[in-house]
Amino acid sequence: MTNLRLRKPRASKRLNRIGLAAVLVLALGFGTVRFLGFGQPMLLVATKTIVAGDKLTTGNTQLAPADVQNFESNYLSQLAPPESFASATIVAGELVPKRLVSPGSVDTLVSVTLDLSGALSSMVVEGRHVDLWSAGGNNFDSPTSPRMLAAQAIVRSIRTSTALSKTTTTVELAMNPEYLDAVLAAQAAKQYLTVVAVP
Q1: For the chain, give me the number of helices (H) and strands (E)?
Q2: Predicted confidence band at 167 (pLDDT cuts at 50, 70, 90)?
Q3: Helix, strand, or coil (residue 53)
Q4: What's the pLDDT tens digit per position in 60-98?
């Protein structure tokens, strides 16, 4: 008897394998592109905490790929034009929204660097609004009532160092210029200073 079994052509198997390989290559390539950021829009990101009145420069911003689910029109997709200023706080690592960029200077805050003893509350982080308080003089024998030196200051940066078992925290605050004299006077008098996060 004649064997009537039908055999699929070898070429068909070869084409199936090539097709499967092509699909795998495309999927792998797409995944790699998404993983590396290719194909995503390039948007402007703050590399440092930027507060109201700060000028946007290449020193505090950079372009980076970002996946914002088709909302890229809300953010800057190029380096900020010259003489562009932030109108509100943009924390390091955040995208720069178009609505927070002003073509002209806004009310400028002054920066003050303070050395505080001990650790800060976990609620005090870069970009957070805080109140600065004086706990009085540097003599425990003559305590004075605490008083607020500056309200609604913004934390620009926090650095902590430890030497001889003593922890010192250096905090840079951006604040309204009207508070500057009182803060500098408290620093000169070596008063105990502390910052409290605004709820």
Answers
A1: 2, 9
A2: confident
A3: coil
A4: 999 999 888 888 889 998 888 888 899 888 999 999 999
Residue 172, token pair as written in the block: 């840079």
Looking at 3.40.50.300, 3.90.1210.10, 3.40.190.10, 3.40.190.290, the CATH number of the domain 37-107 comes to 3.90.1210.10
Amino acid at 129: H
What is the full DSSP assignment across 144-176?
Answer: ---EEEEEEEEEEEEEEEEETTEEEEEEEEEE-
Residue type (1 letter), 147? R
Amino acid in the structure at residue 19: G
Q: Is 178's pLDDT higher than 90?
A: yes
Instruction: Give span(s): CATH 3.90.1210.10, the chain.
Output: 37-107
- Chain centre distance of CA 91: 3
pTM above 0.90, yes or no: no
